[in-house]
């Protein structure tokens, strides 16, 4: 940390401390066990993770003044998944890009935030350094879960009413799946080829939440994975991961296509389709990863609709007993 940055941070901290004296605050215990004095009505929030913090903020009606993001090969910054899920990105909003990994502490300080939200599982730099700029709250998605983050963010920003509407809509969407599909008698799974192995999750982000909340059955091998965890398995495990319907994803933010998703599985098991019932039976569903993996209530709605359109009213070949 440079002397110039330290002095700037201390000066800004002093300024913000004076402002805070005139701003109503309250205590909040974050996921690092720290008791942080935060503004009762924060106005200038900087978010240090796009997927787990920035998208929930936007969906709750709170636009941060700054956000961590990613960059394209050409160096253009973007908020991962946000364009397709919220319609908001750096280029059509006043949200300022504050770096990727690590974030740019000087860029954060220049925005003069009154609150900083931190995901500890991302490279945000030094927490003590960040906290000299403004109150910094640690919210851990590995503790709360993808959608448990919404509850904390709604509490911090006073947007509980908005969250209640999002939850009610999602409950109606899940009820629709259950009405139209006999989920308890249909098995599903989500797999992904990664570096020559098969990645599988107990609950794969938003898509996994929809499938489990709707009551679909998962393979025993998947249910045995601890909740919130995932495993990378060798090719020999493919048969244990088969189901009536298998979902596979690909990254649209890196310009992948469905062919890439298939290619990653081919790297694990050449000719894998012959060994996977769902694929042989044309019951392997390939979906963009941005919608399936992001913590987004819009994404949940899109996924419930996709599940209904792919499975309801369809004749399919069940897994052999």
From TrEMBL:
Transport found in the keyword field: yes
Location relative to the cell: Cell envelope
Signal peptide: 1-22
Residue stretches making up the Fe/B12 periplasmic-binding domain: 45-315
InterPro entries xrefs: ABC_transptr_periplasmic_BD (IPR002491), Bact_iron-sidero_bind (IPR051313)
Gene3D superfamilies: Nitrogenase molybdenum iron protein domain
Keyword flag Lipid metabolism: no
Keyword tags: Ion transport, Iron, Iron transport, Signal, Transport
PANTHER family xrefs: IRON III DICITRATE-BINDING PERIPLASMIC PROTEIN, IRON(3+)-HYDROXAMATE-BINDING PROTEIN FHUD
Family named by the database record: Belongs to the bacterial solute-binding protein 8 family.
Protein name: Protein translocase component YidC
Species for this entry: Devosia yakushimensis
